[in-house]
Design a protein that fits this description.
- The protein is about 65% helix and about 0% strand.
- The longest helix has 18 residues, at about 45-65.
- It has one domain.
- The protein is mostly helical.
- The N and C termini lie close together (about 10 Å).
- The protein contains five helices and no strands.
C-alpha cells in the first residue's frame, strides 16, 4: 500500500513540471509528457499513469487560479507552499484505488 502512495507522489512530480505559458490550460503534448514521465516510475502502468495525469490536470485547473498556475509554471522558483498545496490536493484526489 505504501508503494502506491509513493507512486502517486512520483507522478505528482510529473504534474509540477512546467505546464506551459497559457495559464489555466494545459498545452498540447502535456499529457503525453506527463504519462511518459509517470509510467517510467517502477510499478506504474501506462494506464494508471494516464488516469493519474488526467486527474492531476483536473485538480490543478479546479483548485488554482490562473495566477497560481502561472506561478507553478515559473522557472524562477516556485513558492514551496504552493507546491505543497498542489501535491497534497493531487495526492488526495488522485491516489490509486486499492
Amino acid at each position: 500500500m505504501r508503494l502506491h502512495s509513493l507512486l502517486a507522489l512520483a507522478a505528482t512530480g510529473a504534474l509540477l513540471l512546467p505546464l506551459g505559458a497559457n495559464a489555466g490550460t494545459v498545452p498540447p503534448g502535456y499529457l503525453t509528457s506527463c504519462v511518459a514521465t509517470a509510467s517510467a516510475q517502477p510499478g506504474m502502468t501506462k494506464q494508471s499513469a494516464e488516469k493519474h495525469c488526467s486527474c492531476s490536470v483536473n485538480v490543478i485547473e479546479k483548485n488554482f487560479s490562473d495566477a497560481e498556475i502561472k506561478e507553478l509554471n515559473s522557472t524562477d522558483g516556485v513558492d514551496q507552499k504552493l507546491i505543497d498545496k498542489a501535491t497534497q490536493l493531487v495526492t488526495k484526489a488522485c491516489k490509486p484505488q486499492k
